[in-house]
Amino acid sequence: MGGHHHGPAPLREDKGFQAWYNMRENLGDYYKFTKRGARANIIFMGIIPLALGYLGYSTIGKYTFDDKRRSQPIYEDYVPRKL
């Protein structure tokens, strides 16, 4: 079957991958919490999840996806246009 039967296959290290790995491994040692970093954290960990949660809770029961056919609208108050 496929594969090398004379020991492990030699692996070549990718320098870019190793640099990325080292950067991610040591990020906590060099990260400085600044105003810019705080702003990004507030946006990505606060405002966006709250907005998505509000959007999700505000549309509960508005759209029904169960037992719908392709020709049936998912929105209950949908009025088709006359062509």
Helical content stands at 40-55%
The largest sheet is: none
**Total number of helices:** 3
The 3D shape can be described as flat
Total beta-strand segments: 0
What is the succession of H and E elements? HHH
Nearest-angstrom radius of gyration?
A: 26 Å
Strand content: under 5%
Q: Which structural class is indicated by helix and strand composition?
A: mainly alpha
- How much is the average pLDDT? 83
Description of the structure:
This protein is mostly helical. The chain has a domain at 34-83. The chain has helices at 15-25, 27-30, 35-58. It is flat and about 65 Å long. The N and C termini lie far apart (63 Å). 0% of the residues are buried.
Q: What attributes does this structure have?
A:
83 residues, mainly alpha, 3 helices, transmembrane helix, membrane
Summarize the structure.
With 83 residues, the protein is mostly helical.
List the topology elements.
Layout: H1 15-25, H2 27-30, H3 35-58
